[in-house]
User: What shape does this take?
Amino acid sequence: PPRLIVDPPFADQLARGVVQIQYRAENVRIVPVFGVAATAVSPRIGHLHVRVDDLPWHWADASDDNTIDIAGLPPGLHKIQINLVDAAHRLLPGQSSQTVTFTVPAVAALLH
Assistant: This one.
C-alpha cells in the first residue's frame, strides 16, 4: 500500500517565519496527471492535497520536489494536513494522511 512519510518543519526556518516540510511517498509516484482513467496506471500515480489550519480550501501539489514551503503565516500554533491522493483526488489506502503541528514564533513576524 502507499505510504506518506512527513518530517517536522525545519526549526531554523520557522524562526524566520518560513515553514518547510519535507516528505516522501512510497509505492506511489507523485506526478501532474489527473482524472479517473489515470487511476489504472501502473505503477500507481498520485499527488498531494495540502490544507492549512482547517481552512475550507486546499491545494494540490503534484511537483514531487519533496518539500512543502509556506511563508507568511502569522505567529502562533498552526497545523498542516497532507493527504496522498490518487489521480481522481481520492485518498489512497494505507498510511496516506499526516498532520503536522508547529508554532511560528512571534520573533518571525519582526523579520518581515
User: Anything to note?
Assistant: The mean pLDDT is 92. The CA atoms of residues 3 and 95 lie 5 Å apart.
